TrEMBL record, chains A, B:
<dbReference type="GO" id="GO:0004365">
    <property type="term" value="F:glyceraldehyde-3-phosphate dehydrogenase (NAD+) (phosphorylating) activity"/>
</dbReference>
<feature type="active site" description="Nucleophile">
    <location>
        <position position="140"/>
    </location>
</feature>
<dbReference type="GO" id="GO:0051287">
    <property type="term" value="F:NAD binding"/>
</dbReference>
<feature type="binding site">
    <location>
        <position position="301"/>
    </location>
    <ligand>
        <name>NAD(+)</name>
    </ligand>
</feature>
<dbReference type="InterPro" id="IPR006436">
    <property type="entry name" value="Glyceraldehyde-3-P_DH_2_arc"/>
</dbReference>
<dbReference type="InterPro" id="IPR020828">
    <property type="entry name" value="GlycerAld_3-P_DH_NAD(P)-bd"/>
</dbReference>
<dbReference type="InterPro" id="IPR020830">
    <property type="entry name" value="GlycerAld_3-P_DH_AS"/>
</dbReference>
<keyword id="KW-0520">NAD</keyword>
<keyword id="KW-0963">Cytoplasm</keyword>
<feature type="binding site">
    <location>
        <position position="168"/>
    </location>
    <ligand>
        <name>NAD(+)</name>
    </ligand>
</feature>
<keyword id="KW-0521">NADP</keyword>
<keyword id="KW-0324">Glycolysis</keyword>
<dbReference type="Pfam" id="PF02800">
    <property type="entry name" value="Gp_dh_C"/>
</dbReference>
<feature type="binding site">
    <location>
        <begin position="139"/>
        <end position="141"/>
    </location>
    <ligand>
        <name>D-glyceraldehyde 3-phosphate</name>
    </ligand>
</feature>
<comment type="subunit">
    <text>Homotetramer.</text>
</comment>
<feature type="binding site">
    <location>
        <begin position="194"/>
        <end position="195"/>
    </location>
    <ligand>
        <name>D-glyceraldehyde 3-phosphate</name>
    </ligand>
</feature>
<comment type="pathway">
    <text>Carbohydrate degradation; glycolysis; pyruvate from D-glyceraldehyde 3-phosphate: step 1/5.</text>
</comment>
Length: 355, 355
């Protein structure tokens, strides 16, 4: 059993811990957090040993009635590997500690690519993380784009990608973020940094991205155009995407109009925290004109990188090959929406939520 | 003096009436409204003769203390021309009345193109409306795209346009519209109807558009990609756009981050209702890579078609040529932001609103 320490138990860290916990070949050694509060209470209630980020903070955890198993240094020393889910830029600072204690680590996409030997997406470049000590799971948006582009590239070749990323302003637990009633070019410069980040996965890809931020918290929405190297049949493209393990082709019959209905659908399905690990591509949006492909996809920013973190751990330790790892992660986590997408549309009709 | 009746005195109608009123060659014959309320009060306070859409409603206006000059039929009969600013689809129904009374009319972009002899954008196809009896001013989004594409097409040629339109959910006075905290593919099918609407102005243009609706009320935001037929110099493109009468190239020094700051800038400038008649293109977003052009532009959905309605009237009655009409409309209305955009950036530094 791979013993995994989670450093940073926030939005991503708590989800990765829960995903690791249900896998057959890994276990949560402990989780490290900076301060007490309901999230730390929850970690303790699950039974995760709780570590403090510094000695100075142990007293505040104890004052809150929480047992502290030690400091982050002890967790790093005891773990086979660390998943660093600290805020962007902190992971890079933590790198020194991981190296000192010779503990491999997985970083998140908010870190600079240079923090790791390779950037990672399970579908696109699993094997590049094999035997690596430091791996960076790309951001939610880059993960979403990589999952879409990998099958298109393999099947048809890609000449150019143009994507507009309409980004949520903040997560539901980030009340200090905006915008309110505004639409922001973000960044205002074109192309945005997202395109270069996708090139950490597909080095020679021609991709331009534009970023926009809006007053919403639930998911990101991508408007994607891909100029393919060949001219596909639209039904073949649909089938190609519907077969992908982490793509949910949202059928028209589901009557899912936007991100809110997608999240409600996930809550109805009993998903933990209402999470959607899959890219959600509206079937009606899939469009082919000559060699031009278009679609809309929604990306749950809190969730889509979670299965990728699990797969990154397996790649680094050579526990399984890509297909086996993805299948195991998804089966244990419950990534299942795609199985309904073409076969049993009746299910969706019954679940329609707003008519 | 051209005598102009305005049928439908709502968001667009009241603005068009105010714009007509300040022109040297036209006057407001009267405005027609379906029901009393603060907007009708305001029309009366300005001195616009108020007409009721039907006999049945005259009593309700009188009960509200408003003098009614007659019904819409009388206004149509007395006017040289009608600007129909009724809700989408009603204009088409009104067409019969205008024909019966042999009164030419300008329709708005929510009507089907077939309602008129030509669709209209002053910058792109003014001459096609000369001597026409029925003209359709295209929608706010199509107007915004046409103003941007016309100079690019003339200077460089256009191979293909791909635009993502991030649309406001409703205007500030439409509280029943959504979405709240959601991002909607709208329409979910690709391409959206906006591309074909742009082709009512540029018939052979290759353009694909994607529509998205978000929880905002202030402006639309367009992420635009144009594949040009030649390879321009970026400074030349900037200068080309900055010279356009109804394009405001937003300088970096203005520190205008989004639509809210743009509207605040317009309010500081004393614009009526805080209106922005111009396309607002962020200077930093203008990007050229080979023959690929990118930019972000914000479009004030309540305002950008207003000067176009005035120009449509002049074209139909052969009062001026395109350049003269645009110059007159803009001078009388106060369309002036572009004059600051390159020459006097200091103005913007002093006006910065959020630091």
């Amino acid at each position: 059993m791979l013993s995994v320490g989670v450093n940073g138990y926030g939005t991503i860290g708590k989800r990765v811990a829960d995903a690791v916990r249900v896998q057959p070949d890994m276990t949560v050694r402990g989780v490290a957090k900076t301060s007490p509060g309901h999230v730390a209470d929850h970690a303790t209630s699950i039974g995760y040993p709780l570590y403090a980020v510094s000695e100075d903070e142990i007293a505040s955890f104890e004052a809150a009635g929480l047992d502290v198993a030690g400091t982050i240094r002890e967790l790093v020393a005891k773990s086979d590997v660390i998943v660093d889910a600290t805020p962007g830029g902190i992971g890079e600072q933590n790198h020194t500690l991981y190296e000192q204690l010779e503990t491999p680590a997985v970083f998140q996409g908010a870190e600079t690519p240079a923090v790791a030997e390779t950037s990672f997406n399970a579908r696109a470049n699993y094997d590049e993380a094999r035997d690596a000590s430091y791996v960076r799971v790309v951001s939610c948006n880059t993960t979403g784009l990589s999952r879409l582009l990998a099958p298109l590239k393999e099947a048809y070749g890609i000449d150019a990608v143009r994507a507009t990323l309409i980004r949520r302003g903040g997560d539901p637990d980030q009340p200090s973020r905006g915008p309110i009633n505004d639409i922001l070019p973000d960044p205002v410069t074109v192309p945005s940094h997202h395109g270069p980040d996708v090139r950490t996965i597909f080095p020679s890809l021609s991709i331009d991205t534009m970023g926009v931020t809006v007053p919403a918290t639930l998911m990101h929405l991508h408007g994607v155009n891909v100029t393919l190297e060949s001219t596909p049949d639209i039904e073949a493209v649909r089938d190609l995407l519907a077969k992908e393990p982490r793509i949910f082709v949202v059928p028209e019959s589901a009557r899912i109009e936007g991100c809110g209905a997608l999240r409600e659908f996930a809550r109805d399905a009993g998903r933990p925290r209402g999470d959607i690990w899959e890219n959600c591509i509206w079937d009606e949006s899939i469009s082919v004109s000559g060699s031009e492909f278009y679609c809309f996809q929604a990306i749950h920013q809190e969730a889509d990188v979670v299965p990728e973190n699990v797969d990154a751990l397996r790649a680094m330790f050579n526990l399984k090959d890509a297909a086996e790892s993805i299948a195991t992660t998804d089966e244990r986590l419950g990534v299942s929406f795609r199985q309904h997408s073409r076969a049993s549309e009746q299910v969706f009709t019954e679940r329609a939520c707003d008519d």
